[in-house]
């Protein structure tokens, strides 16, 4: 069977292909000369399957999308406290190259605008690092995130550096406030080289999926970043990733995203997917026109808007059956707060009349720390109510089965359950 996703993605590209509004970025000569026609889309699932269509092997410079990753690497390498001492996390609502500094602290307001990104770049590899060494660290991380060796297009770096007055002035300002220590020229060179890394939409989809999946690169399986780091990066992307269009973007598309002036756009759907598009013509906020339209269509068609998550259907309690002296409560699916609450509510509502109560965990696919604690606490209370409790938990989802009072729940074989099964 052929998976119909590629043809679906191709169809979406056909729907937006004719839109020719917007213009390629013109303040960087290399980008001003870019062909505006290429069009591509890719998505990467949590299982590391990548689907793409259009000019999906075409490389382009990552530009501001790099800001998300450099921010992640800074958080990973130097820790949240130091990073937050350097750059804030409020949306600026202003253009990408605005000098938005917080009153009082003089920190750039967030890491997604240039002032913030230049400051964050300087946190990599220590204050005394050379530009080369710093960029090597970044490139190594970017490559691990993409799952292949990435390169810098030095022509783009050179072209941007020749017209970098605005970024240089931002760097001088940051230096005057003591936000960066190195020279303004070095800071901008490091930042512009970071922006000149070449990627394809497939790379960006995988890199985005890594953020969405708590730092585990879904293709190579490598844990590149910590889950907390990814949470922080996506939170800031959600509020500030699309510059002065961030509010409208979150309302209409609802996917944390970051755009770049070369025409790339990357989105992350926490726990699920990485998405990316490429189309060089930009709107007045500096976001790809056709890329944004593709995101809008995907979000609508596939129900990806973060705020439209459907209420989870079905209960985590698969059945409660009683026979003779045993009641078996079978749980199923993922047990986070919601699933564990199903269990507690069902156990509370059901009149447990038997001497023994067995909780069968064999159909539970996943459990988090809070869910585990709730299930164990529920078991303890059932016991306090006068029952003998036991679990069937061959995958050790309940860990060492220790209850809040220090005792341990008995693990039972399946005989008790088979008995109850006969009365289906
Ligand atoms: N290198 C570009 C700049 O600093 C990145 C801007 C962007 O992609 O939005 O001007």
TrEMBL record:
Q: Which GO terms describe its molecular function?
A: glutaminase activity
The record's listing under InterPro entries reads: Beta-lactam/transpept-like (IPR012338), Glutaminase (IPR015868), STAS_dom (IPR002645), STAS_dom_sf (IPR036513)
Residues annotated to bind substrate: 64, 114, 160, 167, 191, 243, 261
What biological-process GO terms show up in the record? glutamate biosynthetic process; L-glutamine catabolic process
Q: Where is the STAS domain?
A: 316-392
Q: Which reaction does it catalyse?
A: L-glutamine + H2O = L-glutamate + NH4(+)
Cross-referenced Gene3D superfamilies: DD-peptidase/beta-lactamase superfamily, STAS domain
Q: What class of enzyme is it?
A: hydrolase
Respond yes or no to whether keyword Electron transport is given for this record: no
One Pfam family of this chain: Glutaminase
Q: Which branch of life, at top level? A: Bacteria
Family to which this protein belongs: Belongs to the glutaminase family.
User: What assembly does the database describe for this protein?
Assistant: Homotetramer.
**Any idea what this protein is called?**
Glutaminase
Native species: Corynebacterium terpenotabidum Y-11
Gene name per UniProt: glsA
């Amino acid at each position: 069977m052929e998976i119909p996703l590629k043809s679906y993605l191709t169809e979406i590209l056909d729907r937006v292909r004719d839109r020719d509004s917007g213009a390629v970025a013109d303040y960087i000569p290399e980008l001003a000369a870019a062909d505006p026609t290429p069009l591509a889309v890719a998505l990467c699932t949590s299982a590391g399957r990548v689907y793409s269509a259009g000019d999906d092997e075409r490389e382009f410079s990552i530009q501001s999308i790099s800001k998300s990753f450099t921010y992640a690497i800074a958080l990973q390498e130097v820790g949240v406290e130091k990073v937050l001492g350097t750059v804030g996390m409020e949306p600026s609502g202003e253009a990408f190259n605005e000098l938005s500094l917080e009153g009082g602290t003089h920190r750039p307001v967030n890491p997604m605008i240039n002032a913030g990104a230049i400051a964050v770049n300087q946190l990599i590899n220590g204050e005394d690092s050379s530009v080369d060494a710093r960029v090597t660290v970044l490139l190594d991380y970017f490559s691990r995130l993409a799952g292949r060796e990435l390169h810098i297009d030095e022509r783009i770096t050179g072209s941007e550096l020749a017209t970098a007055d605005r970024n240089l002035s931002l760097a001088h300002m940051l230096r005057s406030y003591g936000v960066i220590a190195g020279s303004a020229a070095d800071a901008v060179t490091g930042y512009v080289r970071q922006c000149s890394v070449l990627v394809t939409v497939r790379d960006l989809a995988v890199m985005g999926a890594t953020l969405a999946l708590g730092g585990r690169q879904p293709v190579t399986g490598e844990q590149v970043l910590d889950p907390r780091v990814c949470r922080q990066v996506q939170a800031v992307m959600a509020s500030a990733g699309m510059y002065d269009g961030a509010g409208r973007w979150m309302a209409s598309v609802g996917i944390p995203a970051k755009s770049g002036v070369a025409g790339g756009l990357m989105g992350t759907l926490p726990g699920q997917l990485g998405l990316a598009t490429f189309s060089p013509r930009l709107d007045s906020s500096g976001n790809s026109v056709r890329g944004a339209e593709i995101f809008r269509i995907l979000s609508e068609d596939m129900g990806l808007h973060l705020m439209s998550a459907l209420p989870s259907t079905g209960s985590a309690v698969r059945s409660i059956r009683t026979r003779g002296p045993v009641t078996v409560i079978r749980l199923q699916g993922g047990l986070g707060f919601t699933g564990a609450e199903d269990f507690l509510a069902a156990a509370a509502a059901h009149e447990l009349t038997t001497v023994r109560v067995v909780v069968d965990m064999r159909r539970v696919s996943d459990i988090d720390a809070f869910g585990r604690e709730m299930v164990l606490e529920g078991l303890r209370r059932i016991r306090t109510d006068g029952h003998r409790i036991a679990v069937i938990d061959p995958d050790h989802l309940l860990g060492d089965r220790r209850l809040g009072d220090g005792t341990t729940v008995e693990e039972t074989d399946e005989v008790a359950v088979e008995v109850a099964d006969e009365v289906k």
